[in-house]
Amino acid sequence: MRCVSYIFSSISHFPCFHRWSFRTTRKYSSNNYAFHVPVMHKEVLEMFQPQQNQKFLDLTFGAGGHTRKLLSSARNITVYTLDRDPLAYELAIQLASETTNGQVVPLLGKFSDLPQLLSDPETCNFLDGILVDCGCSSMQFDTRERGFSLSKNGPLDMRMDQNRLENQPSAKDILANIDEDSLARVLKVYGEEKQAKKIARAIIEARYLFKSLQTTHELAQLIESTCGLSTRTDKLQRPSHVATKTFQALRILVNDELNELEFAVRYAHRALKIGGKLVTITFHSLEDRIVKEHLHGFDYSAKSEEIYKNYGRQLDPLLPLAEMERKWESINKHVLVPSDEEVNGNPRSRSAKLRAAIKIR
Question: Among 139, 25, 39, which Cα is nearest to 88's?
């Protein structure tokens, strides 16, 4: 299997296309989300055990639910909040204005922007805890203009950064230009879609016979007409739309999510103190695999730095064990999942998996 970075780079040469400019009618403010209940927040606090004057990094801020829980867990907690979504960044700024003594430090950018956003040499080995909360926020799913949800008709956008990055292609741009073999590989690898080739062929044929796909409903209806009614169910045994995995694959590709997660876990080791804690919440097997490999795997010496450690990576059997050292110690022996009570109250938490580890070297 080829590296995930190759799939993204294969479409990164697309020219910049016309961008939509949509204005949402709904007004957002930090007050709208003051009572937002984040996924597995009790387990997150149990893993961190926050103490007075500690510093945390929240990746990603979203609606700020986890940040609020951390701030209220002990006195004089400082939380650096990162999000690539300009709307979430605005909410973080609003929350910062409601706190004192700089307890909330809003940051705008991707995980891979962290070295520039926290460039002071003193930011190495200075954090007590880092939370990596993967995937999309409820705000993104619930806003049809963002194009993340197949149940809400909107433009095929899916860019978490919105219009912040000038040359980032949207899902519509990709579907209008990608070749059939590359699209099939994207759907198979990123969406784990069994009918990837069939769906890719239908999308390419539609592009040449009719028109480029413009909206989420157009894409969902095309896939449904190609594959028929879905017999799939989610973890709550509810019917799952046949286009769900395609939407997941496109969203991951548009936002380069797996490579960003890979970077975040590596950066966490640099930024955490010895004894600092990393807590991750993932929502599908591709994300969980990356985290598990880092936390249960080994650190490579500079001699072996060229080995690309990502999901799908094959460990070199000839690499001497002497060149490898463990750098994490797991806090929870087994992966944690939401309680039945939480899943019933918040069905979107049903796929969450929490892993936690302590930096030991």
Answer: 139
